[in-house]
């Protein structure tokens, strides 16, 4: 089977719904999925935030301080740290008045080289058409 | 015939999405497909045996057991279950518990993957 590309599409805002966190934890779980696979098989995830889901990628979240739970920001940075591509829809950011200055752009504090990619919906659609499975959250 | 994997996330009560997931699985199995069901998020409510059927509420345990008897594999996310107080001893007979990486591995071989619901 080889490598299977998966696109996790997050549409819901953070904290109000469990879905974004489930998307992130499922995507991160790809790191250890190979123990259940045949030799040579792998999953290659990308996570993309669209619609109100772009709010997940706003920086300086204070969920631990306010709610006593880990931040979605921390999960997104964990993705970057393990070289899991994180994309955010530019059009939806603009709709909510967000610029790249408001967003998680990197996880340099965790030693990550990969950076958040801000992309158009056209690019997201192209990716949606190319992957084997779409996982909507 | 194909292999269908359903990622199922809605709660037992509150919407009809979980009911839909089981109806879809039933239709697929009737057509001869194989079905794997991954219960995550609030859908782990199905990982509690002995649920009592009231006509006011959805009750999917009976259908789930019938479908499992026809070969449907049902696996519950153990982290989501433990977070809600559903432990290993609560799981209905035949249902497996696994971590999220098990589910990700399933996506490799399955023909179609569908995600249903979530709150």
Derived from helix and strand composition plus strand pairing, the structural class of chain A reads alpha/beta
> What is the rounded distance between the termini of chain B?
32 Å
Question: Which sequence of strands runs across the widest sheet of chain A?
Answer: 4-3-2-1-5
Order of helices and strands of chain A: EHEHHEHEHE
Our Rg estimate of chain A from Cα atoms comes to 15 Å
Q: What share of the residues of chain A does DSSP label as strand, in percent?
A: 15-25%
Low-confidence stretches of chain B: none
Question: Could you report the average pLDDT of chain B, rounded to the nearest whole number?
Answer: 95
Number of strands of chain B: 5
Element order, helices and strands of chain B?
EHEHEHEHE
Main beta sheet of chain B: strand number and arrangement?
5 strands, parallel
Structural category of chain B is: alpha/beta
Rough outline of chain A: globular
* Largest protein-protein interface: A-B, 29 and 23 residues
Net shape of chain B: globular
Report helical residue fraction of chain B: 25-40%
How many E-type strands of chain A? Answer: 5
Helix count from the secondary structure assignment of chain A: 5
Report on the structure:
The complex is a heterodimer of chains A (137) and B (119). Chain A has 137 residues and is of the alpha/beta class. Helices cover 29% and strands 20% of the residues of chain A. Chain A contains 5 helices and 5 strands; from the N terminus they run E-H-E-H-H-E-H-E-H-E. A 5-stranded parallel beta sheet of chain A has the order 4-3-2-1-5, with helices on both faces. The mean pLDDT of chain A is 96. Chain B contains 4 helices and 5 strands, in the order E-H-E-H-E-H-E-H-E. Chain B has helices at 17-30, 61-69, 78-83, 100-109, and strands at residues 3-8, 34-39, 73-77, 96-98, 112-116. The model of chain B has no long low-confidence stretch (mean pLDDT 95). Chain B has a 5-stranded parallel beta sheet with strand order 4-3-2-1-5, sandwiched between helices. With 119 residues, chain B is of the alpha/beta class. Classes of the chains: A alpha/beta (137), B alpha/beta (119).
């Amino acid at each position: 089977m080889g490598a299977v590309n998966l696109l996790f599409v997050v549409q819901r805002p953070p904290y109000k719904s469990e879905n974004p966190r489930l998307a992130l934890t499922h995507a991160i779980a790809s790191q250890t999925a190979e123990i259940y696979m045949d030799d040579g098989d792998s999953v290659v995830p990308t996570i993309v935030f669209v619609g109100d889901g772009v709010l997940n990628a706003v920086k300086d979240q204070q969920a631990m301080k306010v709610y006593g739970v880990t931040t979605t920001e921390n999960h997104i940075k964990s993705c970057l740290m393990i070289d899991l591509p994180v994309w955010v829809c530019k059009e939806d950011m603009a709709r909510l008045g967000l610029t790249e200055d408001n967003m998680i752009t990197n996880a340099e504090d965790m030693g990550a080289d990969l950076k958040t990619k801000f992309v158009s919906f056209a690019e997201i659609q192209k990716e949606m058409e190319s992957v084997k499975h779409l996982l909507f959250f | 015939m194909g292999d269908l994997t359903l990622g199922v996330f809605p709660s037992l009560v509150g919407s009809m999405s979980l009911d839909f997931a089981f109806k879809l699985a039933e239709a697929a199995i009737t057509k001869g497909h194989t079905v794997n069901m991954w219960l995550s998020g609030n859908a782990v409510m199905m990982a509690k045996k002995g649920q009592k059927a009231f006509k006011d509420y959805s009750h999917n345990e009976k259908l789930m057991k019938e479908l499992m008897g026809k070969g449907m594999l049902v696996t519950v996310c153990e982290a989501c279950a433990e977070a809600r107080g559903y432990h290993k001893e609560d799981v209905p007979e035949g249902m497996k518990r696994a971590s999220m990486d098990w589910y990700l591995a399933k996506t490799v071989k399955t023909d179609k993957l569908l995600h249903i619901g979530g709150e």
